[in-house]
Amino acid sequence: MSRARPSETKPDSLPAEPRPRPNTPSPEATRWYALSLETALNELGASPSGLTDAEATARREKYGPNELAEKHGRTVWHILWEQVSSVMIVILLIAGVLALIFKGGGGPPIDAIAIFSIVVLFVVLGVIQEHRAQKAIAALKKMSSPTVKVLRDGQVREMNAHDLVPGDLVKLETGSVVPADCRIVESVNLRIQEAALTGESEPIEKCTGPLDQRNLPLGDRKNMGYLGTFVSYGRGTALVVETGMRTELGKIAALIQNVRHEQTPLQKKLDRLGKTLALIALFVAAVVALTGVYIEGKTWAEVLIIAIAISVAIVPEGLPAVQTFALAIGAQRMVKRKALIRKLPAVETLGSVTVICTDKTGTLTQNKMTVTALETFDHRVELDTQAKHYDLKPDQTALAALVMGGGLCCDAVLNPDSETGLGDPTEVALVVAAHRYNLSRTDFEATFPRVAEIPFDSDRKLMTTVHRLPKSGAMPPVVAGLANGLNGLPYVAFTKGAADHILAACDRVFSGGAVRRLTDDDRARIQAANSRMASNGIRVLGVGFRGIPDVPQDQNPDKVEREIVFVGLIGMIDPARPEAKQAVARCKTAGIRTMMITGDHPDTARYIAADLGMTGPDGRVITGIQLEQMSDAELKEALQDPNMNCFARVSPEHKLRIVGALQELGHIVAMTGDGVNDA
User: How many Cβ atoms are within 10 Å of 339's Cβ, its own excluded?
Assistant: First the structure.
């Protein structure tokens, strides 16, 4: 049953119809997050009722379609030219031509045929491999264009996202893809998952007011939505401010297209070898020719044939064939491991890597919020995130109430077989934890049916659900101790939310299977536990309950969210993949340095980096803002510290700068990640 939810952030009322003005960029045009809604609408000459069709058509002609422009990929002829223009192949071609011209005897030119065959084999295999890989990559890039709900002429219409222009007002709903860079106009519990763009592991709660800070990183621009991200919860309205290549995703696409293709280490070595052999061949030919003419008295024609034959013999025509076969075998083995190699020499480059730069969210971590710690006044439990079942001991009454309360006070729906769920990732984590404790939300809602709720609000940072208690004697044994705190009342209200907010509404605590008054020392203990978890980048939720005599007839939180009994704290994080720690250790053994470069919060990055063995517990973290203040020399000096392996809150441009600095220090760098900001 769907329930109406009040606005998570009180949306600014849309200003009166602005006077149309030319769409000329202002000094703050790129800082949309710092502008008020009225100013943003004025900057775009937009209206609260949406653009007219005539305005939209004119803007589409000016700005073009809302799509990422892609440079023409390299054709087969470009790939072929790259293959035949390498120094080694050029030398072989020259040797083959000379062997054909100056062949001895009347038989077939065997040497020339052999050389040309090797060249053809090398070129054909290289062209086929790269062309196939290029086609596969192009197929992976194809994505269907979403349809969006747009306000035009005061009416909501569905249209292709390609037709959006700056100034359009679009509707955002749970599950929809953000179709362009937008300024949030209205937020009703709106949360957007931006991990692919910013590296932020948790969906971002969106607000509508302007943000005063300058140079905010993308992950902190909470009144903006960006092309390519998706709505994980709630709904809202957004003003399109940038489209196509002017979006943040478009800027990344431009960076990718402008990256200069460099030779791999193997290609550089072969080129050096080819040039060296060419110089040796010329020197030997000159010595042979001069010796034959001036010492042995032979003619120039006789000597020239001998000199060319010796020069051709110096060139290792079998080397490209051996190289091509070895790399082709390596590429096929990589395909079996689900890794696509575009260029054959890249197989060898992987073996030459000295530094691996890696994203965090979804690469080193599971990109799935998971409960990792539970703390009540009686027990503190660190959970094994890989375990599929947790046990409750008879004396863990408060722990059972904590897990059950967190699982009931949410709207996520769990698939118990796969432990995947639909809904907010935080709430999915709660129902997964309850399921592993055999406190299934589905089972307990049958015993404790929900009869009312007070939805989450970003001002209160709390959510409350009201449940009817089972009849006397029907309380499940695992949570029977909960009855001690309900004073025989027929209903229980579970409240969850930010620890400091829920603590402010509590006057009692559930401990030892009984309820007692909450003292100042108790509050200090709870705040210390909250700070300890938060300092490790762990998201902390508090849970409490209260017995009530009847079902609240309205959704007024002041009537229910008071005199709460504090139960405990739930800590959750996007945990490291179990194989990631082993991979980092193997890289370290192989002499390869691993470095985390993420857009996520510094505390979270520090915790994961230390957990994986990249840094120590107090390892240094450089943020994007700090990076912008560093000169290239200072950055290189920092990178020479072997323990400086963690960067947080960085943009794609920062990632390019870090990799470039490492390359200038002589490192061969690999980059891995699953987001467009890693490309």
Answer: 11
Measured CA to CA, the distance from residue 453 to residue 461 in angstroms comes to 14
Phi/psi for 423 (5° steps) reads: 130, -170
DSSP 454-502: EEEETTTTEEEEEEEPPPTT-S-GGGGGGGGGTTT-SEEEEEEEEHHHH
Claim: this prediction has a pTM higher than 0.70: no
Locate tokens 């200003």: which residue?
15
Task: Reply yes or no on whether the pLDDT at 308 is more than 80.
Answer: no
Phi, then psi, of 202 in degrees rounded to 5: -110, 140
Mean per-residue pLDDT over the chain, rounded: 80
Mean pLDDT, residues 632-659 taken together: 88
Q: Are strands 669-672 and 355-358 parallel, antiparallel or unpaired?
A: parallel
Arithmetic mean of pLDDT, 520-549 = 90
Residue identified by tokens 């970003």 is: 458
Cα(492)–Cα(282) distance, integer angstroms: 93
To the nearest 10 degrees (0 to 180), the angle between helices 652-664 and 248-258 is 30
Query: Partners of 570 in the beta sheet?
Result: 374, 541
CB 582 within 8 A of CB 594: no
pLDDT at 182 > cutoff 90: yes
Per residue in 378-415, pLDDT tens? 889 988 888 888 888 878 888 988 999 999 998 888 87
The CA distance from 376 to 408, in Å, is: 18
Q: Are the CB atoms for 214 and 168 separated by under 8 Å?
A: no
**How far is it, in rounded angstroms, from Cα 92 to Cα 278?**
10
pLDDT of residue 165: 92
Give the H/E segment covering residue 320: helix 318-336
Q: How many CB atoms lie within 10 A of CB 504?
A: 13
Q: How many CB atoms lie within 10 A of CB 444?
A: 19
Predicted pLDDT of residue 8: 38
Q: How far apart are CA 292 and CA 619, in angstroms?
A: 70
Dihedral over Cα of 425, 426, 431, 433: its sign: positive
Measured between alpha carbons, how far is 615 from 607 in angstroms, rounded to an integer? 9
In this prediction, residue 238 carries a pLDDT of: 92
Active site residues: 359
**Opening angle at CA 485, ends 483 and 489, nearest 5:** 70
Cα–Cα dist 50/165, whole Å: 11
